[in-house]
Amino acid sequence: MKALVMAAIRPASALIAGLAFAGLVAGPAQADYPKSPDQARTWGACPAVAADSHSDKVVRDYNETANHAVLKCGNERWGYWHIYKRHVYDNPEWSNLADIEGVNWRQVVDMAIAKSLDQPDVSGQGPNGTWCYSGQIYLVNKATGQIAKTVEPTVIVAPDGRVVTAFPGGRCQHINPDD
Q1: DSSP H or E segment with residue 146
Q2: For residue 15, what is the enclosing H or E element?
Q3: CA dist 10 → 74, 138, 159 (Å)
Q4: 3-state class (DSSP) for residue 81
């Protein structure tokens, strides 16, 4: 019941926050994570091709969030290269969402990961010791100030704290949030 009440309240508060930020909205501010594309952190550069020799290079350390994780270059199975290959290049999920805001896909992903780690609406342990986090974000049409799309991203973190993947949807459906 609490989840239904929160779901009903959340869009109204998000609209107010959306007008205030005039960008991506991540709910009430509780930590120093990016709440709009303009606040997204700069990511470290990965090599031009996915290579295991650079897989541990840090792209972004989410040390300001309640649930600490690190996005590394990785490879096609985890990290930046996995997110890029599976959710930008093969299937432009993040790019399509970034187009709503007129920003780069990395800015939307950065905010989605940070919000999900800091203020998850759903979280829990997944398979193989992984953890799943999902924090609802709103994409705002900057011309009208109206929410154009609500997204419930899924962020999977390995037991060693590295981000395995982040994709715009799912809301951690593979876990039982009541466990």
Answers
A1: strand 146-151
A2: helix 2-21
A3: 34, 10, 31
A4: helix
Is the pLDDT assigned to residue 28 strictly greater than 50? no
User: Average pLDDT, stretch 150-164?
Assistant: 97
Q: Find the mean pLDDT for residues 4-9.
A: 32
- Tell me which residue has tokens 């096609």: 76
> What does the block give as tokens for 124?
């829990």
Contacts 24+ apart (CB under 8 A), 5-12: 6/121, 10/136, 11/138, 11/147, 11/150
44 close to 128: Cβ distance less than 8 angstroms: no
Tell me how many degrees the CA angle 104-106-154 measures, rounded to the nearest 5. 125
8 Å CB contact between 105 and 96:
no
End-to-end Cα, the chain, rounded Å: 17
